[in-house]
Each structure stands twice: as structure tokens, then as C-alpha cells.
Amino acid sequence: MKSVGLVLAGAVSATVLWQAFSGAIAASNSDTYKQLNLFGDVFDRVRSDYVEPPDEEKMIEAAIDGMLTSLDPHSSYMNAKRFQEMQVQTKGEFGGLGIEVTMENGLVKVVAPIDDTPAAKAGVMANDLIIKLDGAEVQGLSLNEAVDKMRGKVNTPITLTVARQGAKEPLEFKLVRDIIRVKSVKFEVEGPQKDVGYIRISSFTEQTQEGLDQAITQLRKDAGDKLKGYIIDMRNNPGGLLDQAISVSDTFLDRGEIVSTRGRNADETQRFNAQKGDGSDGKPVVVLINGGSASASEIVAGALQDHKRATVIGTRSFGKGSVQTIIPLGSQGALRLTTARYYTPAGRSIQAKGIDPDTVIEQDLPPELLGKDTSTKGEASLKGHLTNEGGGDEGGGSSAYVPEDKTKDLQLKAAIDVLHGVKVASNAKPKEAAKPNQKTGGADDETNAN
Q1: What's the domain of life for this entry (predicted)?
Q2: For position 76, what pLDDT does the model report?
Q3: Which of 26, 138, 6 is nearest to 66 (CA)?
Q4: What is the pLDDT of residue 87?
Q5: CA-wise closest residue to 199 among 109, 107, 208
Q6: Which residues on neighbouring strands pair with residue 77, listed in sequence order?
Q7: Active site residues
Q8: pLDDT over 90 at 252, yes or no
């Protein structure tokens, strides 16, 4: 109710704003009243004394957004326009460049480019920091403001200036905005004998389960009786809809819990279980993940790993283990509010830790990337991130590089080998031994050393 009151206040006076606030706050909460009085005083002073007449609606939106973004990196306010865009995006079609982004140290950070979009085709990579948009500094903009600048009319150009770790100079990408039609599921028969069903899930939209069903049906026809099993490739998949992640997991499970979500209160716990019947007929499954695999993709990987239904190969995932609920506010937009953490069937929280593969396979880097950091730092690197309730070292994130040439894709090759009964060992290089008196052990130490 507090936030609804604030939104509805919009461009009216601070007195009305205060009345909307006070109606939602218990009278005994004097400290809260003092803070809201302070807000009202500041709002009135800006309205009356600022050098130019301020945009009051914009001020209110900024105040709401500031309140929410102070909670964690994934809570935010969407005005009516952004809420509508979000609804379109989850349907799998929207206008833009095709990149999933977050905010880090005042800059826009790429979580992952979306397959077959202007950003992906131009070579934008996970972990890139966008420092300029059409030559204008990003520093000082909110994430929503930066996203608005990247969106625009189809076929209009925009230049992204990117800082990439290891690059001596910032990189420039000249992109042309396009309608982003996210075909979240692609598939083909892989392997020397064309007997492995390869399914690429790039995001979790309303169309994902339908696409998965079509993929399995067609792969059965294409491979026939020689089908060895399925590879579910969720590398650089930034996530999406929770219900789709549950449904995808259920396709490969016959029973048991898929995921649980736990909010502030014990009675808010929800458990989601698999329905009887395995849509893949019990065929072996290998899941591919890397540092760009986040949220919904981690739910699927964690569920299939805990039930020993799949072998997980790749590198450690991003570590976004929180659930965001979209709370509509009528004509005023909506809140994206973090309301719970999610847990795998074995009770593991992935928040700020990520999913560790059963077999770690690092990709060989091409000459132009040798000596450069191609990894994501994960959820734990985001300012204000939720901690992991289980404690212990935080981490998450890893290499997010996937070669375009499948013949050079070591993770894909390992997955095909596993489905052919070949034993695959980790190729991860051991960490250097600590020197005498050198501090070791935490994720922060590793970050500082890079």
C-alpha cells in the first residue's frame, strides 16, 4: 500500500502525497512519519525553489525507483510504458538491440546477448560494460534511462561504446535497432552419427515449453531409434519466466520436487512438483551451463542435477537465486519486487553462489582473447545483492565464452561424448598455490587478484 500511495500521488502536491503515505502507515510508527515528513518537505522545496520548474511526475518516478533499487539489483519500478514493454518482451517479441543488462558501478553491464540479434551478431559479449551510448556517457543514468536510450524505432542506428576487460581501448559497436523476435528454442541432430538431440534454450518466454515440445517431437523423427539422448544448452541464457522453467524441468522428470520458493514468512513457501510422465522417455540428458546462465536456467539445471536426471557440464552459473514478482499498479505501471529466494530440490540456495557443474569444461580461447578475462563475476559482484542464507563463500559466474564454430566447442563435444558413454574428465586448470603469508579462500580475494 505504501508504494501504491506514492505512485498515485504523481504530479500532485506534497500535501496530497503525504496524505497518501500516512494512510498506509500505522500511527504509532513515529520514525516513519518523520522520514515521510522529510520527503514531503524536500519535494515541496524542490517544486518551489529549483532553478527551473521540475517535472513532478519524473521526480516521483525517480523517488520510487531509488527506493526499490536500494533494496537489491533486481527490484525496480516500471512506469506504464516500461510495464507494457515488459509484457511484450515476455511474449518473445520486442524492439531493441537484443541484450540482457544490469547495472554495475554506475555502468550498464551485459549479462548476455540474445541469440541472432543485432548485439549478438555485432560481437557484444557477456560482461561487457557499456560506457557510452551514441557518444554520451552512461554514468549518471539509471538502468531504466539507459535501456530507454537503447530502445527506439526499428532500423535506426545507435553506437555502443564498450569497455571490455583485457582490451587496451574501448570498443565501438554500430548497431541498427530491430524487432527482436526471440525464438527461445532451437534444435538439430548432432554428433558424428547424427544420433544426439541438441536443444538450445536461449531464454524462458511464454513460447519456451511449446518450442521444447516441438523440438523433442522432431528430433525423435530425425534421429529415429538411434537417438542416444538430449543436450539442453542453456549457456548465456539470462532466465525469464518461472513457470516456464518449472515446465521445462517437468518435461524430463517423472516425479519429485522441481523448485521451492521461500519468502519472508514461512507460510509463503511454495513447492512445485513434477507431474507423472517423462516427456523425453527417460533418455539420457546433458545440460550445458556457463557464467551467463542465470535465474530460470539455474532452476532447470539445479532440478535435473539434484534428481540425477542429467549430467551438468560447463562452468559455474551466474548465481541469481531470487524471485521477482510483478505487482501491477493500475494505470501507473508496476513494481518488480524481489519477494523470495528459490531453492533446488535438495534445499540448495543458488543465490550469489551459482550451480557448479558435475564436470567443469573450460573453453579454449581464440588468439584475440588469450590473456583476457571472458568471465562474468556473477550475482555476488552486483552491489546490494541478496546474500546466500546458507552462508559460506559467495561466488557465481565464470567464463561465458562459447565459440561460434561448433568444432571448437569443447563443452558441446564433452556432452556428445557423455551421451556415447565416453568418460569425460574436467579440464579446469588448478588454481595457483598461495604464497607464504598470502591471504586466500574467499571469492573477494579471487576478484581482487584478477
Answers
A1: Bacteria
A2: 92
A3: 6
A4: 81
A5: 208
A6: 335
A7: 295, 306, 320
A8: yes
